[in-house]
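Obj: model holo form, ligand = adenosine-5'-triphosphate.
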Amino acid sequence: MPRRRKSGGQEFKFLPFSPQQQRLLHWWRPGSPYAPCDMVIADGSIRSGKTIACICSFLQFAQSNYSGQNFIVAGKTIGALKKNVIGPMLQILRAWHWSYVYHRGGQDNSIEIGDNVYYLYEANNEASQDKLQGLTAAGAYLDEAALMPESFVVQAIGRCSVKGAKMWLNCNPAGPHHYINEGYIKQADAKNICLLHFGLDDNLTLSQQVKDKYRRMYTGVYYKRNILGLWVAADGLIYQQFADRPEDYVVDDDYNPSNIMYAVIGVDFGGTTSAHSFTLTGYTRGYKEVVTLDEYYHNNRKDGRLSPADVDKAFIDFVRRAKARYRVTEAYCDSAEQTLIQGLTAAAMRARLGIDILNARKGPINDRIAFYTSLMAQGRYKILRHCTHTIGALEEAVYDDKDQTKDIRLDDGRMNIDSLDSMEYSTESMQDQILYL
Ligand SMILES: Nc1ncnc2c1ncn2[C@@H]1O[C@H](COP(=O)(O)OP(=O)(O)OP(=O)(O)O)[C@@H](O)[C@H]1O
Ligand SMILES: [Mg+2]
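Output (holo structure tokens):
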């Protein structure tokens, strides 16, 4: 195999490691109290320095103990892995002046360092574990392990069969009944696992200002998990802050529209027992605020089922009303209903609305919830007073207490989930960018 020193690219600029990061760096070394452990789990708050210390620790372990062996490096998606792990890892290798060859593209992504090979995996569904089959590894690093299916973690453990093999896992906490908490953290002694818990103060490179910013970004269960690093259940009201003080968010209908750069429509189509819901969401300059400006709501069960032509008409009226006040060029619609979407597209063309009808992304509901609760915590969410269905939906939304292993928004036919869906479809394509502005 060719071996060449990569010279281009940035080097990682190391700053002093905190005492907890140093424990993570050295736990595996002979003489450390944790040396007999087979695995380390670094859990805790976001941005607390877990990933950087895991990468350094894992590479030092692998390269100083083995030659000619395989290692597993995994993230939830290849994209997340490259951004969060491989990017910093290559910078670290350059800073250490360690030669490497990065093979990418095709089926197998891998990094060769000396005679060892690090295979890169994504672990986001039940089939992910199949790719590990047949491999014999001397170690594994699973970044954000709580986002991976349990089957992948079990398979990775099974693959680490070389004598002295060790594993590195890190994650932000999820619910208390998550398999990582119940099956590994709570059984750390029996399973020979070293636990290292991280808080924001364990990353010495974060300024007080940045730490304060992270603390302001979350409330409720997300604050407890992402900032305090606790494995706690999501229970009770989802938008607790909003439900406690709706007046902090509700603004009068004459709320300065010249502030709005542009607005986007979200559409959720209703079935026989649910509602058609449209939401118009505006963004103020610099994306400082996200404002629910208008809504349309028709409950098929209570108010009679609409024909497709009625839905088209309601939509056209809604778009015209929106365009009379704001710049509006996009509508994101529930992609499960392709015939209705096609109907809307044709109707929009006929009426010359000048609007693109697009499929809603429909990503994880919890990501959408996290977006709105974070905006609320930062005082960046507003809703116009006449949007009463959406206000009611935000006030009443609760987590389902029947399934405590996952956070599930209760959708039992009595809650108004439709208003929340259309609201979320309207912002989903922008949510990641806006949150970090
Ligand atoms: N010793 C260090 N020297 C320089 N930068 C560091 C050091 N430790 C952490 N950092 C930087 O701090 C930031 C957060 O660190 P890291 O990504 O390791 O945190 P994390 O706990 O994995 O966060 P998350 O839970 O969000 O994935 C990164 O930008 C990282 O480069
Ligand atoms: Mg990380």
